[in-house]
Amino acid sequence: MSSRLKDVAALAGVSTRTVSNVVSGTGAVAEETRARVQSALDELGYRPNVAARNLRAGRTGLIGLAIPELHSPYFGELAGMIVEAAQQRSWTVVIDQTFGDREAERRLLEGTGGRLVDGLIISPWALGPEELTGRSRDVPVVLLGEQQAHGVADRVAVDNVLAADEATTHLLSTGRRRIAAIGVQPHLRNGTARQRLSGYRQALRRAGLRPEPALERAVTTLHRKHGAEAMSALLEGDERPDAVFAFSDELALGALHVAVERGVRVPEDLAVVGFDGIEDGRYANPALSTVVPDKRQIAERALQCLADRIYSPASTVPPLDIVIPHRLDIRASSGRTG
Amino acid sequence: MSSRLKDVAALAGVSTRTVSNVVSGTGAVAEETRARVQSALDELGYRPNVAARNLRAGRTGLIGLAIPELHSPYFGELAGMIVEAAQQRSWTVVIDQTFGDREAERRLLEGTGGRLVDGLIISPWALGPEELTGRSRDVPVVLLGEQQAHGVADRVAVDNVLAADEATTHLLSTGRRRIAAIGVQPHLRNGTARQRLSGYRQALRRAGLRPEPALERAVTTLHRKHGAEAMSALLEGDERPDAVFAFSDELALGALHVAVERGVRVPEDLAVVGFDGIEDGRYANPALSTVVPDKRQIAERALQCLADRIYSPASTVPPLDIVIPHRLDIRASSGRTG
DNA sequence: CTGAAAGCGCTAACAG
DNA sequence: CTGTTAGCGCTTTCAG
């Protein structure tokens, strides 16, 4: 079985104190002793027991990442970058999926008291601002993509209203006038969909158009399937839209698929713009225009926030509100026609 | 700060033993005492310290998942299912990305001695069979998608040769004769690409065709970009293929994109089949035919293996070799023409 | 420079 | 039914 510090000490003929010093590089050890200890270490293939070290240190070197679902490309890409950024800081990431479940989100937020993790990055869907403000948590928390909670915890998100406005304005600039929005989510409390809707309406109004309820389609999830269903409904409606702004790339890809399948010409008859900048969109047919949040920066800043709070627990810096830049990638699905 | 068992005991006027019993539901506790302890528990918002519990129990409740990259749809979907299956077994998953790096893979495999995790699921890319057989590890390991290592550890994988044969045979059955293969990876040691290539060749030979080196395209990664590049090269070649079998859906989607963009009619002029059954393919234009491994079952069986080894460490059951079923989903990209 | 020993918070064997 | 206590393996204070 695996050997302990004590075994190594016995083999090298020194105390555990000295072995510990050699392992961690702490303190001063005579060169001769160090060599002897090192060979004992190698011979036994010693690995420090993480649990014991954690218990002693009061830190685990783990951070939690709680996201709705790992299989969606957006969260998959983001999670990958967070894991990578964490590795660079010598942290290990523990992943939980909430599936947008209120209880799961609440449990994770409150259950962090077990000190399994030194910090938590959570992307809440079902939890509203008031629920995020629970009893004060004992590990630092960073909220991802949540723009309603003020002063509760550090937040990292793009400016959804602005981004949606830009996407819609782009469609208007190509001459579209009946622009549908796919992705309204009245059942979620995180405000993302609401903000994108509001940016969309804002752009329409500025162009002198009036938002039409028939063009604002609700979905139960952000998956392709529901984008496809929403598109079907729109195509079967009385007045077809000439453009679609989908609140996620997945919805947009579902919509695109249905449109192309039914012989609608994209972008000539229908322009499509998505949101998230996932890799799939780049290779879709036609390639999908999309709002691209700087995911790499989301990951970096979120970890930076955690690091600051973890290493300076006494810090009185108020909760940060970090706005991540985004850009609009215009591709074939909304390319200017003739 | 967070309270300890001792604090709760003091508040409730009992010993830590009793509190421990209440928390864990072990032993018998008088109803009256239990109530008193419970209210003390609630009042202090007690959470057991995971590190201490782990140290005591010799288990952490964590399992490691080491995959090349989280952002690729295949691994994203698979990781999601593994996290889900682990949650059901009350395990938490720690994710590491190896990016197919030999050193990273080796480190993870050997570094499991720290007992951070109770078990490890790893999908090796760069490590060959001989390297997998290192010093005997002290936590159970499950190999994913590795079919060369015999008797080293439990393995869970689809029958790549068979699956590739089926995909190729399907293309042959639609009348294709110049079938290209995209995805040869001479630099990787995990054997997956080699096996798919061998299944592909086997099908060709059975049909009386001879494999042509010009039609077997190597790639450096399985990403869409390299599928696109391989397709470009094929289209610019002297004799165009009338079908493509890509060793991953991502490669297939990259190829599909380039083909459609250049006006090649799919499936009339070119049929495309991928491998992995990722969600993107279903909504591609045209929808992508693909070999679909039962990912849910991969996740389930891998966890089952770990559970068996972890809970019966003394088991003498030899390393298992689990073959996961797959199916061929024929969609528009290879639909029979005329 | 190195040894002895306390203690992180918890569980469980051993009393009572 | 409940209290006392010995460690799990490590780091670190205090001596030497």
Short account of what is shown:
In chain A, 43% of the residues lie in helices and 17% in strands. Chain A is of the alpha/beta class.
Structure description:
- Chains A, B: It comes from Streptomyces argenteolus.
- Chains A, B: Pfam families: LacI, Peripla_BP_3.
- The structure is a homodimer.
- Chain A is an alpha/beta fold.
- The first copy, chain A, folds into 3 domains: about 5-50, 434 Repressor (Amino-terminal Domain); about 60-155 and about 295-325, Response regulator (Rossmann fold); about 160-295 and about 330-335, Rossmann fold.
- Chain A is built from 13 helices and 12 strands.
- Chain A has helices at about 5-10, 15-25, 30-45, 50-55, 75-90, 100-110, 130, 160-175, 190-205, 225-235, 250-260, 280, 295-310; strands at about 60-65, 90-95, 120, 140-145, 155-160, 180-185, 215-220, 245, 270-275, 290-295, 320-325, 325-330.
- Chain A has a 6-stranded parallel β-sheet, sandwiched between helices. Chain A has a 6-stranded mixed β-sheet with strand order 7-6-8-9-10-12, sandwiched between helices.
- In chain A, α1 crosses α2 (about 15-25), α8 runs parallel beside α9 and α10 (about 225-235) packs across α11 (about 250-260).
- The radius of gyration of chain A is 26 Å and the shape is elongated.
- The relative contact order of chain A is 0.11.
- The interface between A and B is large, with 56 and 56 residues.
- β2 (about 90-95) of chain A pairs antiparallel with β2 (about 90-95) of chain B.
- Chain A binds a DNA duplex (16 and 16 nucleotides) through α2 and α4.
